[in-house]
Amino acid sequence: MITLYDYLPSQNAWKVRLLLNQLEQEYTQHFISIFEGEGRTDEYRAINPTGAVPAIKLPDGSVLAESNALLVYLAHGSQFLPSDPLQQAQVQQWLFFESDYVQSTVATLRHWMMTGKDKNRSADMLEAKRNSSINTLSVLDRRLSDNEFLTQAGYTIADMSVYAYVHLADEAGVALDNFTNVQRWIISVKAQPGYLDKVYPYSIDEHSFKEL
Ligand SMILES: N[C@@H](CCC(=O)N[C@@H](CS)C(=O)NCC(=O)O)C(=O)O
What we know:
With 212 residues, the protein is an alpha+beta fold.
């Protein structure tokens, strides 16, 4: 069985849980207490060199990290990753967008806001993150203005990945009110069979106030 190295408040891990749920694939969870430094051990770095979650271990002992790489691997051969080379690369285009733009803006800001670390950041830095979050959501909203999902291939891992942090933008202090296409897309993603409703706040972890 696949082992998922997990931390419950991580939406990077949630996106992998979502796909596994939608694939109806069984897995076991191994929790890593990232704010207590469990990710920085030699043992865990042999699984993911960056020390971050998520990662997976396969039954044959192979390991893989980076949430979007996990999605590509796990979705291989399913309806969530087209086999056509161009369509597959278009899905990857949005996975890279998520990794470059969403993680560094909405996701980072949400982490700071939900763990009180915003108090340790300068006003300029917070303002820059808010502005870049709004820019990222604007790109997404324009893309979704004439597309139901992010690519022509329908609901794919690109949607799962981008959705993971974007639908929680209000927890980053960024309202989605003006992003009407994003709001409509959120409803469509939530309506997919096997959708995973449960997300976890950082407050379930008494160590989450610590800096990484
Ligand atoms: N680009 C990575 C980011 C992973 C990441 O930042 N994970 C966070 C939790 S959401 C983490 O484990 N942080 C602890 C650390 O970086 O040491 C991915 O997509 O998997």
